[in-house]
Amino acid sequence: MSSFEGGGGGEKKYVEFCTGVNGLDKVILREVRGQSAEVYLNGGQVTSWKNEYGEELLFLSSKAVFKPPTAIRGGIPISFPQFGMHGSLEQHGFARNTVWTIDKDPPPFPTVSSNKAFIDLILKPSEDDPKSWPHRFEFRIRITLGPGGDLMLTSRIRNTNTDGKPFTFTFAYNNYFYLTDISEVRIEGLETLDYLDNLNSRDRVTEQGDAITFESEVDKVYLKTPTKIAILDHERKRTYVLRKDGLPDAVVWNPWDKRAKEIVDLGDEEYKHMLMVGAACVEKPITLKPGEEWKGRQELSAVPSSYCSGQLDPQKVLRLG
Known about the structure:
Beta-galactosidase, Chain A, domain 5; mainly beta; 7-stranded antiparallel beta sheet; Gal_mutarotase_sf_dom; 9-stranded antiparallel beta sheet; 1 helix; globular
Protein backbone atom coordinates (compact mmCIF):
# COMPACT_ATOMS: atom_id res chain seq x y z
CA MET A 1 0.00 0.00 0.00
CA SER A 2 2.86 2.36 0.75
CA SER A 3 5.75 2.72 -1.67
CA PHE A 4 9.41 3.47 -1.08
CA GLU A 5 12.28 4.61 -3.23
CA GLY A 6 15.98 4.46 -2.46
CA GLY A 7 17.81 7.77 -2.51
CA GLY A 8 21.13 9.34 -1.68
CA GLY A 9 20.01 10.18 1.84
CA GLY A 10 18.25 6.89 2.43
CA GLU A 11 14.74 5.78 1.64
CA LYS A 12 12.05 8.15 0.50
CA LYS A 13 8.67 7.41 2.03
CA TYR A 14 5.75 8.23 -0.25
CA VAL A 15 2.98 7.17 2.16
CA GLU A 16 3.11 7.57 5.93
CA PHE A 17 0.45 6.45 8.41
CA CYS A 18 0.37 8.54 11.59
CA THR A 19 -1.87 10.33 14.05
CA GLY A 20 -3.08 13.89 13.65
CA VAL A 21 -5.06 16.35 15.74
CA ASN A 22 -6.75 14.77 18.77
CA GLY A 23 -5.10 11.44 17.93
CA LEU A 24 -7.16 10.94 14.76
CA ASP A 25 -5.74 8.64 12.09
CA LYS A 26 -4.02 10.51 9.29
CA VAL A 27 -2.11 9.65 6.11
CA ILE A 28 0.64 11.86 4.67
CA LEU A 29 1.47 11.60 0.97
CA ARG A 30 4.84 12.96 -0.16
CA GLU A 31 6.55 13.38 -3.50
CA VAL A 32 10.25 13.56 -4.28
CA ARG A 33 10.39 17.32 -4.90
CA GLY A 34 8.78 18.10 -1.53
CA GLN A 35 5.09 18.31 -2.36
CA SER A 36 2.74 16.80 0.21
CA ALA A 37 -0.89 16.11 1.05
CA GLU A 38 -2.56 15.06 4.29
CA VAL A 39 -5.67 12.90 4.49
CA TYR A 40 -7.76 12.24 7.60
CA LEU A 41 -9.73 9.02 7.81
CA ASN A 42 -12.41 11.15 9.49
CA GLY A 43 -14.45 12.10 6.42
CA GLY A 44 -11.92 10.53 4.02
CA GLN A 45 -10.87 14.14 3.78
CA VAL A 46 -7.83 15.90 2.37
CA THR A 47 -6.90 18.67 4.84
CA SER A 48 -3.59 19.88 3.41
CA TRP A 49 -1.94 20.14 -0.02
CA LYS A 50 1.44 21.81 -0.27
CA ASN A 51 3.68 22.59 -3.23
CA GLU A 52 7.44 22.00 -3.45
CA TYR A 53 8.07 25.26 -1.55
CA GLY A 54 5.95 24.12 1.38
CA GLU A 55 3.21 26.65 0.58
CA GLU A 56 -0.28 25.57 1.61
CA LEU A 57 -2.74 25.46 -1.29
CA LEU A 58 -5.90 24.47 0.61
CA PHE A 59 -7.72 26.55 3.21
CA LEU A 60 -8.30 25.00 6.64
CA SER A 61 -10.19 27.01 9.23
CA SER A 62 -8.31 27.92 12.41
CA LYS A 63 -11.49 26.86 14.21
CA ALA A 64 -11.89 23.52 12.41
CA VAL A 65 -13.16 20.79 14.74
CA PHE A 66 -11.28 17.48 14.68
CA LYS A 67 -13.77 15.42 16.63
CA PRO A 68 -16.05 12.88 14.90
CA PRO A 69 -18.86 13.07 13.96
CA THR A 70 -18.22 16.77 13.29
CA ALA A 71 -17.13 17.56 9.74
CA ILE A 72 -13.76 19.30 9.29
CA ARG A 73 -14.10 22.87 8.00
CA GLY A 74 -11.76 23.22 5.05
CA GLY A 75 -9.63 21.03 2.83
CA ILE A 76 -11.76 18.85 0.56
CA PRO A 77 -14.87 17.53 2.34
CA ILE A 78 -16.99 15.12 0.30
CA SER A 79 -20.76 15.50 -0.06
CA PHE A 80 -22.51 12.13 -0.37
CA PRO A 81 -25.23 10.93 -0.74
CA GLN A 82 -26.67 14.43 -0.63
CA PHE A 83 -25.33 17.85 -1.53
CA GLY A 84 -26.80 20.79 0.35
CA MET A 85 -29.98 20.66 2.39
CA HIS A 86 -32.40 19.66 -0.35
CA GLY A 87 -33.20 16.11 0.72
CA SER A 88 -34.05 13.92 3.70
CA LEU A 89 -30.51 13.80 5.15
CA GLU A 90 -28.37 16.25 7.09
CA GLN A 91 -26.69 18.97 5.05
CA HIS A 92 -24.15 17.48 2.61
CA GLY A 93 -24.85 13.90 3.67
CA PHE A 94 -22.87 11.64 5.97
CA ALA A 95 -19.64 10.78 4.10
CA ARG A 96 -17.85 13.90 5.36
CA ASN A 97 -18.43 13.13 9.03
CA THR A 98 -17.97 9.35 9.01
CA VAL A 99 -14.66 7.61 9.73
CA TRP A 100 -13.41 5.76 6.64
CA THR A 101 -11.12 2.73 6.59
CA ILE A 102 -8.05 1.81 4.56
CA ASP A 103 -9.09 -0.17 1.47
CA LYS A 104 -6.69 -3.09 1.49
CA ASP A 105 -8.05 -4.83 -1.58
CA PRO A 106 -9.23 -2.17 -4.06
CA PRO A 107 -10.27 -3.08 -7.59
CA PRO A 108 -7.95 -1.85 -10.36
CA PHE A 109 -7.97 1.93 -10.72
CA PRO A 110 -7.11 3.69 -13.96
CA THR A 111 -3.96 5.43 -12.80
CA VAL A 112 -0.58 6.51 -14.07
CA SER A 113 1.93 3.80 -13.19
CA SER A 114 4.52 6.36 -12.07
CA ASN A 115 2.30 7.56 -9.22
CA LYS A 116 3.58 6.15 -5.93
CA ALA A 117 2.08 8.58 -3.41
CA PHE A 118 -1.53 7.43 -3.09
CA ILE A 119 -3.98 5.96 -0.60
CA ASP A 120 -7.14 3.92 -1.11
CA LEU A 121 -10.02 4.41 1.33
CA ILE A 122 -13.44 2.79 1.56
CA LEU A 123 -16.76 3.67 3.18
CA LYS A 124 -19.49 1.08 3.73
CA PRO A 125 -22.84 1.24 5.51
CA SER A 126 -22.88 0.98 9.29
CA GLU A 127 -25.52 0.75 11.99
CA ASP A 128 -25.06 4.47 12.59
CA ASP A 129 -26.11 5.50 9.09
CA PRO A 130 -29.37 7.45 8.77
CA LYS A 131 -32.42 5.23 8.46
CA SER A 132 -33.67 7.75 5.91
CA TRP A 133 -31.11 6.37 3.43
CA PRO A 134 -31.35 2.59 4.02
CA HIS A 135 -29.10 1.33 1.23
CA ARG A 136 -26.07 -0.89 0.92
CA PHE A 137 -23.14 0.61 -0.97
CA GLU A 138 -19.39 0.65 -1.37
CA PHE A 139 -17.76 4.06 -1.74
CA ARG A 140 -14.10 3.77 -2.72
CA ILE A 141 -11.78 6.71 -3.17
CA ARG A 142 -8.19 6.87 -4.34
CA ILE A 143 -6.31 10.05 -3.37
CA THR A 144 -3.10 10.52 -5.36
CA LEU A 145 -0.30 13.07 -5.22
CA GLY A 146 1.38 13.09 -8.63
CA PRO A 147 5.13 13.57 -9.22
CA GLY A 148 4.41 17.12 -10.40
CA GLY A 149 2.38 17.93 -7.29
CA ASP A 150 -1.07 17.53 -8.85
CA LEU A 151 -3.72 16.23 -6.46
CA MET A 152 -6.12 13.64 -7.88
CA LEU A 153 -9.27 12.19 -6.29
CA THR A 154 -11.05 9.30 -7.97
CA SER A 155 -14.32 8.06 -6.47
CA ARG A 156 -16.23 4.87 -7.23
CA ILE A 157 -19.67 4.32 -5.76
CA ARG A 158 -21.36 0.94 -6.20
CA ASN A 159 -24.90 -0.18 -5.34
CA THR A 160 -24.60 -3.41 -3.32
CA ASN A 161 -28.27 -3.65 -2.34
CA THR A 162 -29.49 -7.26 -2.15
CA ASP A 163 -33.19 -6.31 -2.28
CA GLY A 164 -33.08 -5.28 -5.94
CA LYS A 165 -33.65 -1.60 -5.17
CA PRO A 166 -31.85 1.24 -6.95
CA PHE A 167 -30.66 4.29 -5.06
CA THR A 168 -30.19 7.92 -6.02
CA PHE A 169 -27.61 10.42 -4.80
CA THR A 170 -25.92 13.73 -5.43
CA PHE A 171 -22.20 14.32 -4.93
CA ALA A 172 -19.52 17.00 -4.62
CA TYR A 173 -15.82 17.43 -3.93
CA ASN A 174 -15.93 20.69 -1.95
CA ASN A 175 -12.49 22.19 -2.63
CA TYR A 176 -11.54 24.99 -0.22
CA PHE A 177 -8.74 26.86 -2.01
CA TYR A 178 -6.40 29.06 0.01
CA LEU A 179 -6.28 32.62 -1.36
CA THR A 180 -4.38 35.77 -0.54
CA ASP A 181 -7.38 38.08 -0.90
CA ILE A 182 -10.84 37.02 -2.13
CA SER A 183 -11.46 40.49 -3.62
CA GLU A 184 -8.48 39.94 -5.96
CA VAL A 185 -9.66 36.57 -7.30
CA ARG A 186 -11.55 35.60 -10.43
CA ILE A 187 -12.82 32.37 -11.92
CA GLU A 188 -12.61 31.61 -15.63
CA GLY A 189 -14.61 28.90 -17.38
CA LEU A 190 -18.08 29.60 -15.94
CA GLU A 191 -18.97 32.68 -17.96
CA THR A 192 -22.43 32.79 -19.62
CA LEU A 193 -23.52 29.53 -17.92
CA ASP A 194 -26.75 28.96 -16.02
CA TYR A 195 -26.56 28.51 -12.26
CA LEU A 196 -28.84 27.76 -9.33
CA ASP A 197 -28.72 30.60 -6.80
CA ASN A 198 -28.89 29.07 -3.32
CA LEU A 199 -29.23 32.55 -1.83
CA ASN A 200 -32.44 33.11 -3.76
CA SER A 201 -34.58 29.95 -3.51
CA ARG A 202 -32.39 28.07 -6.02
CA ASP A 203 -33.62 30.28 -8.85
CA ARG A 204 -32.05 29.43 -12.20
CA VAL A 205 -30.06 32.41 -13.49
CA THR A 206 -27.70 33.00 -16.42
CA GLU A 207 -24.24 34.34 -15.50
CA GLN A 208 -23.68 37.74 -17.11
CA GLY A 209 -20.11 38.64 -16.16
CA ASP A 210 -17.03 38.21 -18.35
CA ALA A 211 -15.39 36.46 -15.39
CA ILE A 212 -16.62 35.63 -11.93
CA THR A 213 -15.31 38.01 -9.23
CA PHE A 214 -16.30 38.46 -5.57
CA GLU A 215 -17.60 41.38 -3.55
CA SER A 216 -20.39 39.76 -1.48
CA GLU A 217 -21.71 36.37 -0.35
CA VAL A 218 -21.91 33.78 -3.13
CA ASP A 219 -23.57 30.35 -3.08
CA LYS A 220 -24.15 29.01 -6.59
CA VAL A 221 -24.30 25.72 -8.46
CA TYR A 222 -23.18 26.24 -12.07
CA LEU A 223 -24.69 23.78 -14.56
CA LYS A 224 -23.24 21.95 -17.56
CA THR A 225 -19.77 23.26 -16.80
CA PRO A 226 -16.59 22.60 -18.82
CA THR A 227 -14.08 19.95 -17.80
CA LYS A 228 -11.57 22.69 -16.87
CA ILE A 229 -12.06 25.64 -14.53
CA ALA A 230 -9.39 28.18 -13.51
CA ILE A 231 -9.26 30.11 -10.22
CA LEU A 232 -6.84 33.05 -10.53
CA ASP A 233 -5.24 34.48 -7.35
CA HIS A 234 -3.81 37.78 -8.64
CA GLU A 235 -2.05 38.70 -5.39
CA ARG A 236 -0.13 35.43 -5.24
CA LYS A 237 0.32 35.24 -9.04
CA ARG A 238 -1.03 31.72 -8.89
CA THR A 239 -3.78 29.91 -10.76
CA TYR A 240 -5.54 26.83 -9.49
CA VAL A 241 -6.73 24.55 -12.27
CA LEU A 242 -9.62 22.17 -11.61
CA ARG A 243 -10.12 19.37 -14.14
CA LYS A 244 -13.01 16.99 -13.69
CA ASP A 245 -14.72 13.99 -15.24
CA GLY A 246 -18.18 12.59 -14.47
CA LEU A 247 -19.05 15.78 -12.57
CA PRO A 248 -21.06 18.15 -14.77
CA ASP A 249 -21.74 20.86 -12.17
CA ALA A 250 -19.53 23.28 -10.23
CA VAL A 251 -20.29 24.73 -6.80
CA VAL A 252 -18.95 28.18 -5.89
CA TRP A 253 -19.24 29.44 -2.29
CA ASN A 254 -17.90 32.19 -0.09
CA PRO A 255 -19.84 33.30 3.01
CA TRP A 256 -18.47 36.88 3.09
CA ASP A 257 -18.39 38.90 6.30
CA LYS A 258 -21.89 38.68 7.78
CA ARG A 259 -22.41 34.97 7.19
CA ALA A 260 -18.85 34.14 8.29
CA LYS A 261 -19.61 35.51 11.76
CA GLU A 262 -22.50 33.03 12.05
CA ILE A 263 -20.37 29.96 11.24
CA VAL A 264 -18.97 28.69 14.54
CA ASP A 265 -16.04 26.78 13.05
CA LEU A 266 -14.86 29.64 10.81
CA GLY A 267 -12.93 32.73 11.91
CA ASP A 268 -14.69 36.05 11.36
CA GLU A 269 -12.11 37.29 8.85
CA GLU A 270 -11.15 33.96 7.28
CA TYR A 271 -13.60 34.33 4.41
CA LYS A 272 -11.03 36.69 2.86
CA HIS A 273 -8.58 33.82 2.36
CA MET A 274 -10.82 31.06 1.03
CA LEU A 275 -13.00 30.14 -1.90
CA MET A 276 -14.84 26.87 -2.26
CA VAL A 277 -15.06 25.69 -5.86
CA GLY A 278 -16.42 22.17 -6.00
CA ALA A 279 -16.69 19.57 -8.74
CA ALA A 280 -20.21 18.21 -8.37
CA CYS A 281 -23.19 16.35 -9.69
CA VAL A 282 -26.21 18.17 -8.25
CA GLU A 283 -28.79 19.19 -10.82
CA LYS A 284 -29.42 15.67 -12.15
CA PRO A 285 -29.00 13.08 -9.37
CA ILE A 286 -27.28 9.79 -10.15
CA THR A 287 -29.31 6.57 -9.94
CA LEU A 288 -27.60 3.19 -9.63
CA LYS A 289 -29.26 -0.19 -9.91
CA PRO A 290 -27.82 -3.08 -7.84
CA GLY A 291 -24.38 -3.96 -9.19
CA GLU A 292 -23.95 -0.67 -11.05
CA GLU A 293 -21.04 1.67 -10.35
CA TRP A 294 -20.51 5.40 -10.82
CA LYS A 295 -17.12 7.11 -11.20
CA GLY A 296 -16.25 10.74 -10.59
CA ARG A 297 -12.79 12.20 -10.72
CA GLN A 298 -11.07 15.53 -10.26
CA GLU A 299 -7.48 16.74 -10.61
CA LEU A 300 -6.16 19.90 -8.97
CA SER A 301 -3.00 21.71 -9.99
CA ALA A 302 -1.41 25.05 -9.16
CA VAL A 303 0.38 26.87 -11.99
CA PRO A 304 1.83 30.36 -12.66
CA SER A 305 -0.85 33.00 -13.10
CA SER A 306 -0.03 33.49 -16.77
CA TYR A 307 -2.31 30.50 -17.35
CA CYS A 308 -6.03 30.97 -17.86
CA SER A 309 -8.78 28.56 -18.77
CA GLY A 310 -8.48 29.25 -22.48
CA GLN A 311 -4.81 28.31 -22.50
CA LEU A 312 -5.09 24.96 -20.79
CA ASP A 313 -4.00 21.96 -22.79
CA PRO A 314 -7.15 20.33 -24.20
CA GLN A 315 -5.27 17.02 -24.38
CA LYS A 316 -5.14 16.93 -20.59
CA VAL A 317 -8.88 16.54 -20.12
CA LEU A 318 -9.43 13.75 -17.64
CA ARG A 319 -10.39 10.36 -18.95
CA LEU A 320 -11.48 7.34 -16.95
CA GLY A 321 -10.88 3.80 -18.08
